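Help! Submission page says 'invalid entity' but I think these are all valid:
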Amino acid sequence: MKNLDYQQIDPQALATPTPTPPPRPLPEHKPRRARRKWEVFPGKNRFCCDGRVIVARQCGVLPLTLGLIVLTSGLFFIFDCPFLVEHLTGCIPVIGGVLFVFVIISLLQTSFTDPGILPRATPEEAADIEKQIDNPTGSSSSYRPPPRTKEVVINQQVVKLKYCFTCKIFRPPRTSHCSLCDNCVERFDHHCPWVGNCVGKRNYRFFYTFIVSLSFLTAFIFGCVTTHLALRSQGGNGLVFALQASPASALELVVCFFSVWSILGLSGFHTYLVATNLTTNEDIKGSWSGKSGNEDVGNPYSYNSITKNCCSVLCGPMPPSLIDRRGFVPSDDSVQTSPVEIELSAAKNDTNMVGRAVTSG
Amino acid sequence: MVLQNKEFHNLQELRHSASLANKVFIQRDYTDGTVCKFQTKFPSELDSRIERTLFEDTVKTLNNYYAEAEKIGGQSYLEGCLACLTVYLIFLCIETRYEKVLKKISRYIQEQNEKVYAPRGLLITDPIERGMRVIEISVYEDRGSSGSSSGSSTTSSSGR
């Protein structure tokens, strides 16, 4: 009777689930501290708090953004609020406070969240993809072959998937490689220097909350400061007197005046993007705007309903981070291949015995 | 009748004492957009190792799990709105629906490995460990095989 080559595995004897890396190094290996994956991350990112927090290497003008917001709001609370509370209503600092908290928290979340980075392909995966692509014969190692693309039909629209030479994968739809962070990011919107991070699938909603609440905050402070100065200059005192009495308000006015237009404009633009389920990247490239005059080109990802688009972008399920920053680097990955040969010869005798036992049985 | 050979008592030993012959990669299927879905096309390398139906069942179940995780509906809107009101701080406290489904998926894959794939010398890697790009199936070499590997598996067999 012919028996199986692989015997039944006893489920109770299974120690750990499938090929996840062991959380601690094996005792036979020399005691080397197990490294976490963030320590060997190939992209240009910086990690804090043992991998819990991720930032782009060039944090851009994030300190400036934070500084401006904190400074302006601080001046507002210290110099304008007391006057306004006295003359108008006590709600003003409360509203201001809530908006300020919203702005700071969403800013920090946008900056410190993984935007949807795609981990690079493992060597075996890259080799598998290479096999599937036609390689022009006689190409030298220094010659880079023409960009490889794959076509896919999504919602009756032909979408081209490009091959990323750095990450060695075919980029999924709407994914783009950020050169500043050197990572492929899913649903790549743009790399925002103000926030010091890419804006992608996972942190777009934080970014949107940030700019919307910032526009409210800026407009609110602008309005309050104007009211404050107007009230002060009443009674024949004049604007100059009011400014002399409260010089901080002048600074706030200038900052708010210049930022409110750009922030409001940005919020409006992103509201349009959310409503049509587009990314900044796609909008700028004109991917779906029918540039060749072909009216049949439309956004294949749109649900053709503003509410549904908004809900799916802002209220959709939160996808997990794919880069597993705090996981441990598998210590037996390179080791796995070498002892196999050793085991092979040793086990050969055993299997022969088994084989004989089986066939006789 | 099952022969308990001590060298294949557990999955760890399978990995270390059997030799890794090949890795088969099941790619993503993007025809439905950016949702996570894998191709159900049966790879030719697995032709002699496992039945087509078993393989397709596994992939279809996985696809269903991912569809459930990414479903946009009443519950996800509620989660989203609540999160928005708390400035998304709620994500630091509770486990999202996606994470719950990922745990279910990982249990399912482990179960499939134990029951279906390991006995055939195959091992499925959870796609989350490969950035949800591929389902990696490791093919272990048939040991002491006389060329007529499985196809055997399951059922009948006797006297072929």
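Support: the input was valid. A stray whitespace character was the problem, and the output above is from the cleaned input. Chain B touches chain A through 83 residues (CB under 8 Å).
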